[in-house]
Amino acid sequence: MLPSPCSPTRIASLGHRSVSSGRSTIGVWTRILGLLGIGLLASCAGFQQERHLAPLFTELSLAGGDRGIEALGGMVLTRRDAETKRIEYWAVRPFASHRKQPGGRSFSWYLPPFGQRFVRPAETVTQFLPIWRYAKQHPEGEVVSWQFLTLPGFYFAKDADGDRKSAWFLLYGDVDNFLSFDRAQWVLFPLYSKFERYGRTTHNALWPIFQWSQGAGGPSWRVWPLYGQLGWEGRYKRKFVLWPLYMRQTNDISRKEGDQQESHFLFPFYGQARREGAVNRTFLWPFFGTAKDEETGFWAWDGPWPLVVFQGGDPERAVRQRVWPFYSFYKGDGLTSTWYGWPFINVRSEDYGTHNRSAVTIFPFWQQWDASYPGDLRAHWRKLWPLVRTYEDERGDSEFLAFPALNPMRRFDFIDEHYAWIWELYTTQRQYDRIRERSWLGLWRRERDRDEDRRSLVGLWANRKYSERGKRVSETSLLFGLIRWRSTEDEGRSALWPAVPGPGWPIERVPNSIAPVGVERPVGPVAPTGAVISPQSEP
Fold first, then answer.
1. Is the pLDDT confidence value at 536 over 50?
2. Cα separation of 106 and 104, whole Å?
3. How many CA atoms lie within 13 A of 464 on its CB side?
4. Residue 171 has what DSSP assignment?
5. Which end of the chain has the least Cβ crowding within 10 Å, N or C?
6. DSSP assignment, residue 415?
7. In DSSP terms, which residues pair with 279 in a beta bridge?
8. What is the pLDDT of residues 461-517, one digit of tens each?
9. What is the C-alpha separation between 137 and 118, in angstroms, rounded?
């Protein structure tokens, strides 16, 4: 009696590894073909087996043990965690994707870059910019408040006290804690509106023409653009006549007279702002300007702005040199950046405190950054557009390569995540002892870890290597699982039941079957199924 066709049990011995004659080889294939007819009638690929039908559908065991599904050449992806059995990542590219994160967090894209969803322990935000935004607060698992804002100015909300609010920006509104205001009211905006903030109430009629304020900070008013007296007692006072022709302003009026800043402006001919020891001047605004601070040594020259800018002299402030578009230099806040022929050539270095990074860009053909960490550790990222992009982390535990690299931008990794599967012919990624390879549409793939090494070419050929009782085992599948055999070091070859659509490998891997490559297992999930997701271009 033959064994069950759904069992991995071998059908028959096909010879020992020591047999190498042509007659033995013919005998092997004769036995395979002779059993093929019987096997086809009873073949099956169970739910717990891999299925390789790329580009239509592929279900496989990922390096690391997770279970992945890829359909329509990489358009549809899922990754199921090996331990929790839950889907940790799914995508219908380029339309949407969802990724679970540690600590009960998750992030989703919808029609990237417009739609996003953030799930945090105490808040969930869903938005489709710039059309609508919905946020709800649930600090202890229960929704205590929420806000919804959408074009053309509709606003709905419920606060922690259970009070509901609604407003239409153009018609009517009476809302507490609206944007940056304690309370906002309006009727037929811009006909009339009233805003309260920090104990001060401001009224507007036919905004921006008529405005008057009262309460904290004292009174202020304006009839724009004719005349206005605005201010806050102890902070500032402003005056304009025929705005913007003449404006005058005093800041920090609570300080002594020498520490106050006074400015006046006769548009567009001349403007001046003066504080003791420091003076800023502008001529034919915004094209020409100067600045000088005798106390700090700071100086600046704009002329004509924004084409020509120079400033320096103060070690606490940034240094700028710009003759746009030919040359520009900036140094400050841990950043040094030089442009040659903007936007084509940029050389920059950054100090993040924990590490330093240097970068070179020759747009769009070459982009690179190198990050330096304590202990003489360095991470590398390269892109030779449109050919290839590569990455290596600072410890050499993770490597990545993709070919070609048609995305010319560096800072928008969501483009590669959702679109690169369309054009990438080959990707490979190593994370510790895990190796993942994939070709265009998933026609070729490899998933290797210390458990097993699995490779496949569409349904034409597939191979699985592992160890059993200390002996190396190799299983091969041809023609979508119609022809399968197993080879071991001590037992030679034996036929396996067909497993259409093949290759028939079990999802579960043989644990610790392959000797590690000298590194420890990573902590956390591997990259999603399909086109391997590259590390962030920003360290």
1. no
2. 7
3. 27
4. T
5. N
6. H
7. 274, 292
8. 999 999 988 889 999 999 999 999 999 988 889 999 999 998 999 999 999 888 765
9. 12
